[in-house]
């Protein structure tokens, strides 16, 4: 292993690839001034994007002997291979490692990295949605958290802390089946089922999902909304467009119901963290929507759910923060 403590980090989604360096000997391992972002569509492979980053930051010219990496990817990691769910990249760990000339490379699900970031978050990094609030406790020895986030897709994971040790859970929970909770949502399910067959939660709770909701509501009203992007829906909502605001209201309510289901599934009684590219953009809507009501509305467990915090992450780079935490565990000075 290299004597240099620098590790290459990546957080790869369906749209954006973010890179940074970590110093595994530092108290704050993520080197903020090293962060760069690129569009994944601009590169034929992850190795090409990573090499472009190293060239751009002048790693070789600066004499940095970077020999290890932690890459968080938005897809299931299966042995040597990871597939980006919402992008055609197929990533081979061994080929990527060899192409970069690394000694070692870790591929992890992006929500494993999101989960590993949780103990590093401060009070300024989160905004509570509803009550109760939350107080960070980096020395906690026994916690179970859920983490869920809509972006290009819907990521779902968790973090178990036992005896001070952290165990991230890698899941594909965004692909579980959508369960409507209102008559309007039943109608939406019927429209989406006609289009997709099986309807997963991700068909509603992500950027393209917001468009799916708007289109379904338009079709129910007998109208054709045309081709829209998620930004079109949020922009129209900002001007007071009723259907766009309805789509966002449904989005937030279903998101709350799904986040509550995650608590029941994982036993995440210590809190659920909301992350992903859409959360900061919809923060005000989440705070003033049915999110929290649907989160708590779990029948005989409603009183228990009322005590569980729901926290929107506003830290700009939680995926890289978590990848840095994994790098410290894998390559830190104590290793």
Briefly characterize the structure.
This protein has helices spanning 46-56, 93-100, 110-117, 183-196, 207-220, 230-238, 242-266, 278-281, 283-287, 291-296, 302-305, 318-331; strands spanning 6-12, 16-23, 30-39, 68-73, 77-78, 81-83, 90-92, 104-109, 126-128, 142-150, 154-162, 165-170, 272-274, 310-313.
Layout: helices, strands, pairs:
Blueprint: E1 6-12, E2 16-23, E3 30-39, H1 46-56, E4 68-73, E5 77-78, E6 81-83, E7 90-92, H2 93-100, E8 104-109, H3 110-117, E9 126-128, E10 142-150, E11 154-162, E12 165-170, H4 183-196, H5 207-220, H6 230-238, H7 242-266, E13 272-274, H8 278-281, H9 283-287, H10 291-296, H11 302-305, E14 310-313, H12 318-331
Parallel strand pairs: 1-4, 4-8, 10-13, 13-14
Antiparallel strand pairs: 1-2, 2-3, 5-6, 6-7, 9-14, 10-11, 11-12
Helix pairs in contact: 1-2, 3-12, 4-5, 5-7, 6-7
Characteristic terms for this protein:
alpha/beta, 335 residues, 2 domains, 12 helices, Hexokinase, domain 1, Nucleotidyltransferase, domain 5
Written description of the protein model:
With 335 residues, the chain is of the alpha/beta class. It folds into 2 domains: 6-110 and 317-331, ATPase, nucleotide binding domain (Nucleotidyltransferase, domain 5, 2-Layer Sandwich); 122-314, Hexokinase, domain 1. Helix content is 36%, strand content 24%. The chain is built from 12 helices and 14 strands. It has helices spanning 46-56, 93-100, 110-117, 183-196, 207-220, 230-238, 242-266, 278-281, 283-287, 291-296, 302-305, 318-331; strands at 6-12, 16-23, 30-39, 68-73, 77-78, 81-83, 90-92, 104-109, 126-128, 142-150, 154-162, 165-170, 272-274, 310-313. Helix 1 (46-56) packs parallel to helix 2, helix 5 (207-220) crosses helix 7 and helix 6 (230-238) crosses helix 7. It starts with 5 loop residues before the first strand and ends with a helix.
């Amino acid at each position: 292993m290299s004597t240099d403590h620098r590790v290459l980090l990546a957080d790869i989604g369906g749209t954006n690839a973010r890179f940074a360096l970590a110093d595994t000997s530092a108290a704050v391992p993520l080197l903020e001034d090293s962060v760069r972002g690129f569009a994944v569509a601009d590169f034929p492979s992850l190795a090409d994007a990573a090499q472009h980053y190293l060239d751009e930051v002048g790693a070789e010219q600066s004499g940095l002997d970077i020999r290890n990496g932690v890459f968080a990817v938005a897809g299931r990691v299966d042995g040597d291979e990871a597939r980006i769910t919402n992008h055609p990249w197929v990533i081979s760990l061994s080929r990527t490692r060899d192409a970069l000339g690394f000694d070692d490379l870790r591929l992890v699900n992006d929500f494993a990295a999101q989960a590993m970031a949780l103990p590093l978050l401060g009070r300024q990094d989160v905004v509570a949605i509803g009550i109760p609030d939350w107080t960070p406790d980096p020395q906690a020895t026994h916690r179970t958290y859920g983490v869920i986030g809509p972006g290009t897709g819907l990521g779902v994971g968790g973090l178990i802390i036992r005896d001070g040790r952290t165990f991230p859970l890698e899941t594909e929970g965004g692909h579980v089946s959508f369960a409507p909770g209102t008559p309007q949502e039943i109608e939406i399910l019927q429209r989406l089922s006609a289009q997709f067959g099986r309807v997963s939660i991700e068909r509603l709770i992500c950027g393209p999902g917001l468009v799916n909701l708007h289109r379904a509501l338009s079709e129910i009203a007998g109208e054709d909304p045309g081709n829209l992007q998620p930004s079109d829906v949020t922009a129209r909502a900002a001007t007071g467009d009723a259907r766009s605001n309805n789509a966002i209201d449904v989005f937030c309510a279903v998101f709350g119901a799904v986040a509550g289901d995650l608590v029941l599934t994982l036993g995440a009684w210590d809190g659920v963290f909301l992350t992903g590219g859409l959360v900061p953009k919809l923060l005000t809507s989440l705070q003033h929507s049915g999110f929290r009501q649907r989160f708590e509305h779990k029948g005989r467990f409603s009183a228990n759910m009322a005590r569980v915090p729901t926290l929107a992450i506003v830290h700009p780079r939680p995926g890289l923060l978590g990848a840095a935490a994994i790098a410290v565990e894998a390559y830190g000075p104590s290793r």
